[in-house]
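Weekly modeling sync, notes
Attendees: S.R. (lead), two postdocs, one rotation student

Agenda item 3: backlog of single-chain predictions. S.R. asked that every request posted to the team notebook include the full sequence so nobody has to chase files. The rotation student volunteered to paste the first one in as an example of the format we agreed on. Action items at the bottom.

Example entry:
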Amino acid sequence: LLSRAIDIVALIAGALIVVMMVQVAVDVVARYVFGRPLPATTVFISQYYMLFVVFLAQALPERTNNHIGVEIVTERLPPRIQYHLASWTHLLCALIYAAMARASWTEAILKLRSNASVIESGVTVPIWPGYFPVPIGCGLMALVLLYRFIVYVTGWKSGLGETPVPGATQAAQGNSR
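Predicted structure, as returned to the notebook:
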């Protein structure tokens, strides 16, 4: 279920990249060929597309354990310690992402209730929908991280298809003894 949710939001983010590219291309042609740019293109890109693309897709690399990591200190630790440290980091990060989801949800609801909008080139564009990808993406990220921590604690086989954390095999063998 979690993997399916990640696939759906990643598909939405990918589709919005295509829509954004088309809108920018049409805006450039309209601006330089016809002398009339599309109204509010900047608002749509900054208040919608970029937020949806970044926040909805952030759980995708986490699902497969492919987020960028800086391991200057931890790479020198034994693999088993790396595994345990990474797994407990999942819990800490899940709590941080959950707090970010809660705070951004509150902000999104405030923007919805106030019907937040901007005016560009004489066109009023509601921007409140652009506040919702942040809590959705952070909430999904929190769920992925919490799931990975639960897999660590219980020893269950993960269904996310991630690349194993260094030391995972050794730790699993040590837990089964």
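Discussion: group reviewed the output briefly. Strands lie at 117-120, 123-126.
Action items: rotation student to repeat for the remaining queue; S.R. to check formatting next week.
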